[in-house]
Amino acid sequence: MEILTAIVATLLAIVAPVGTVVDSLAVNAIRDQLAGAEQIQVRVDNVPNFQILRGRIDQARVAGRGIYLRQLPDLRIAAIDLETDVVDIDVGRLQRGELVLDEPAQAALRLRFQADDFNQFLQSDQVDDWLQTLRFSLPGPVDDRELNRYGLANPSVVFLEGDRLRVMVDLQDRVANEDIALVIDLGLAIVNGHRFQLVDPVLTADGEDIPPQLLTAVVDGISNQLTLKRLEALGLIARVLEFKVRDNELDLVIFARIEPTSPLLAGQTATQAVPSPP
After folding, report:
1. CA-wise closest residue to 108 among 77, 80, 82
2. Which of 85, 92, 187, 226 could pair with 199 as two cysteines, CB 3.0-4.6 Å apart?
3. Residue 236: how many CA atoms within 13 Å on its side-chain side?
4. How do the residues of the chain divide into helix, strand and coil, expressed in percent and rounded to 5?
5. What is the side-by-side strand order in the sheet with 195-205?
6. E strands in 45-116
7. Residues 236, 200: one domain?
8. CA separation (Å) from 143 to 135, 172, 174, 218?
9. pTM strictly above 0.90
C-alpha cells in the first residue's frame, strides 16, 4: 500500500510552479519526490497553453526504470509505466508550495518487480518492523499471551510460473524460544480488485507437510491487514486490474483515484495515515 500512495503522490507533482509544463521540468519535479531513479521519461500530450496556466493537464505519461520511492527506499521497482486522466491543480496554491487538487485525479499504472530486488527489500529493517506488528494465533484457545506468542522472520520469495509463489519464512515461537522453517507454495487470485486470495496452497514446516488449518491461521492474521480498501479512509481508491507472476518477475496493473481532500496530498505517508485494522 505504501507503494501505491507514493506513486500517486509522485504523479501529481508533474506541474511546475512557474505556470508552464515541459517534459524536462516534469522529470525534475518527479525526481524530487523519489529516493532515486535510474531513468525517467515524461510526456504531456496535447495540452493548450491556456489550460496549463489554469493548472489543467489532459493527460500525462510517465515511464520510469530502477525507481526507489522515499517511503520505500530499500525497494527497487524495475519498471513503472503510468498514464493519467485529467489532472486539475490549484496553480496559485502550488506556487506557494502546496499541492491542492481542484478535482479528483486518477491514473492507471503498471509495476514490474524483479525477484532479487524484492528479496533484498524483504530483508530490510522496514519489513522487519512491519512483521513485528503482526498478531496471529495457531488453532486452539486464544488469549493475550497466545496472540503475542508467534512471530515471523527472515522472509524470502521465489516467483514461479503460472501466477504462483514460493514463500519461505521462519515461524518464531517466543515462548518455546524456537524457530520453525515454513515453506508455502501457493497461487494468487484477485478478489474484487483489492484483496489477494490463496489458490491451492501447500505448507511444509521443517520439511514436513502441515494440515491446512495451520496455514489458514497464519495467513488470516496477515491478509486481514493487506486489503487496499484500508486506503479509502485516506481518500485513495486503488484496485488491482491485473496480476501476473513469471520466473523472476511480478507484474501488477493498478487503477488509482485520489480525492482532493486526501491527507496524503499534505505529505503524510501511508504508515502515518492509514488507520489500524479492527
Report:
1. 82
2. 187
3. 29
4. 25, 40, 30
5. 150-159, 164-173, 178-191, 195-205, 208-209
6. 56-57, 60-69, 76-84, 87-88, 105-114
7. no
8. 12, 18, 15, 16
9. no
Bridge partners (DSSP) of residue 151 are 172
Q: Which three cell numbers stand for residue 246?
A: 513469471
Q: Where do runs of H (alpha helix) occur along 134-269?
A: 144-147, 212-223
Q: Please, are residues 151 and 174 in contact by the beta-carbon 8 Å criterion? A: yes
Domain boundary, last residue among 204, 223, 242? 223
Where helices occur in the chain by DSSP H, the ranges are: 2-11, 23-31, 49-53, 91-95, 115-122, 125-132, 144-147, 212-223, 270-273
Per-residue pLDDT tens for 15-62? Answer: 333 333 445 656 666 677 678 889 988 777 656 666 666 667 777 788
For 111, the grid coordinates are 509495476
Report the number of distinct structural domains present in the chain.
2
Domain final residue pick, 181, 196, 223: 223
pLDDT at residue 91 greater than cutoff 70 = no
Q: Specify the pLDDT at position 16.
A: 35
In a domain? residue 151: yes
Residues 112 and 232 in one domain: yes
**231 with 3: CB under 8 angstroms?**
no
Asked if the structure places residue 278 within a domain, the reply is: no
214 vs 121, residue with greater confidence? 121
Q: Identify which of 75, 72, 104 has the alpha carbon closest to the alpha carbon of residue 88.
A: 104
Closest by CA position to 14, among listed 235, 4, 34, 270: 34
In a domain, 248, yes or no: yes
